[in-house]
Amino acid sequence: MDIQAVIKVLNKELGASITSDYYNRIEEWRQWWAGYVKAFHKFSEITDSGKKKERTLYSLKMAKKVCEDWATCLLNEKTQIVLADEASSVFLQGPEDEQATGGVFGNISFWDEANSLVEKAFYSGTGAFVMKLDGLLAGEDGTVLTSPEAKVRMEYLPAMNIIPITVRYHQITEVAFASENTVRGQKYVYVEIHTLENGAYVIQNRYFKSAGGVLSAAPLPEGIAERINTGSPYPFFAILHPNLVNPYPDNLGLGCSIFSQAVDNLKGVDIAYNNFNRDLWLGGKKVFYNRELTKTIGVDKDGKPIYLAPDDMLQQLFVSVGDEFTEDKKLVHEFNPDLRVADNRDAVQAQLDYLSFKCGMGTRHYRFSGSMGASPITATQYTGEKQELKQNAAKHGIVIEQAIQSIVRAILWAGKNILGQPVDPETAIVVIFSDGYIVSDDEKKAEDRQDIISGIMQRWEYRVKWYGEDEATAKAKTQPTGPVYGGRTFPPGEDE
Length: 496
Fold this sequence. Notes:
- By secondary structure, the chain is α+β, with helices and mostly antiparallel strands.
- 35% of the residues lie in helices and 23% in strands.
- It is built from 14 helices and 20 strands.
- The strands form 7 sheets. Strands 6, 7, 8, 9, 10 and 11 form a 6-stranded antiparallel beta sheet that branches. A 3-stranded antiparallel beta sheet has the order 5-4-12. The protein has a 3-stranded mixed beta sheet with strand order 16-13-17, with no helix packed on it.
- Strand 9 (200-211) and strand 10 (214-217) form a beta hairpin.
- Helix 4 crosses helix 7 (110-124) and helix 13 (459-467) crosses helix 14.
- The longest helix has 31 residues, at 387-417.
């Protein structure tokens, strides 16, 4: 999609002066996420014949791995949304025993798609939930009518599809979303513009035929209105991004990639990994032999004889060096190159340590056993080294929680005012993140047992939390069953 052409159309229609320079940076981040940046990974070597041969750098494609791991830490199957209003919770997520597949979230595969959106936002710098309503009824002036049969749908877009129009106090309040599709070989660009008018959001839809970087207006597809007066004070979109201060000028209010300050480290990883693979590729056994051991099987196009290697083995193994060796190696000499496995492994590990540190994961997130002569570490050391990951996960979680709360309120507002459901858009919404991918349950239990000893947690609270018992049952099971002497409780019949 030609983002410059879309911005040109928006500037003309809205009287704005949006620039497109920042999207060049986003495209570079996308290429690193995809694992191939031509300017870096493609290089040339001169062969012994003087010809130029293009080669591609081996790559670990760590940018995508970093974004995948952040998405896994931040938004996973253990994340919960708790709504104070029960009817709203059932509408959004289904009954308690169906919350993974029920309600609006189940219909739009919210958790799977939201996890993917976090990955997209962390590589591109920004992501957006965009709510849509299929089967929406509207009057001639675009005013939304009650539409009980309408269905909530959701799009999950990365930064290159997001064009901020108005930014207030670092929040995108008005925005356009652009996407490209192909119909019978013809490319079209769909633009959806969300703006505020008199305190309520208006959505305007535009459709363009795309040819040679030029957009020409085209009729909207059937069922899509040109203008929709939602009447909603809540935006039908929510923006999320890594919780980082964007250091780049002219960023339009968009965020920056989680690895935006670690591109040199991505290069370092791939250089080290490429050297490792090249050493393995070039490190095969070589057997140099005297030409006297060979026979000719013909001549090439220049009339030079073609020699047959002993036993018809690959020329990568057998190499003819002419008619003579030095005196002590008359006929055959075997050479086994040093693969430098330990040196290369340590180089790759060092670069991974720098990368994980720069991406906020600490220095040991990508640690392979036996590397760099590392000795085993204790559980306490391991937990301490994860503190940076935990702290940054909590920081990024603030932005993700706000985005989820915002889009949930939009869904509930549409549920009440458009779908006619008995829900409350003003209900309290709490997002509970799980750090199970960072700290194991055994570690958490050990911490809670220490809190019991310290008097911070009650024994019954521990049973409620870890055994799933209700409060009454847990208290009954932790009540003293005998007399107490000197702070100790003894079962009946075992008094001191």
